[in-house]
Structures are given as structure tokens and as C-alpha cells.
Amino acid sequence: MRVVKELIQEEIRVSIFSWNNKYILKFELGPMEQTFKLSEMDVLEESELDTFLTGDFFDKVKNRFDEMGKTFRLQLENL
Length: 79
What we know:
The protein is of the alpha+beta class. It contains 1 helix and 4 strands.
């Protein structure tokens, strides 16, 4: 597995890997993680992967983390 890029954006740790003819985009925030896989054939240049770090896609990742966090906290309160 090759690390393509690692960064922190708006408190979210983003790691992009190349593995087995796929790009793996991993977003982490606290105890939560979201992972997306796409074929290397769908991307002409690695720089195109930056489009996943902005705009509507990244906004939806943040919103999903908000929902995941609420669900997780509610479950912890009910232990």
C-alpha cells in the first residue's frame, strides 16, 4: 500500500492510499472513520483526487460525521 497524501482539513484527518489498483480515501474524526474506494482507472492524474477534499463531497463527509457522532453519543448514554 502506497501513501499518496496525508493531511488534516477542518479537524478531519485525510489519508489517500493507492492499493490493488484502487485509491482508498480515508477520513477520520475522533473515533469515527469513513472510507471510500475508487478504481485507479477512474482517475487520470493523482491531483484529481483533491476534488474529494472540497465542495459538496467534503461537506457531505462532514455532515455524515455529525450524524455518526450524534448516534454514537446517544448509544454511549444508553449503556
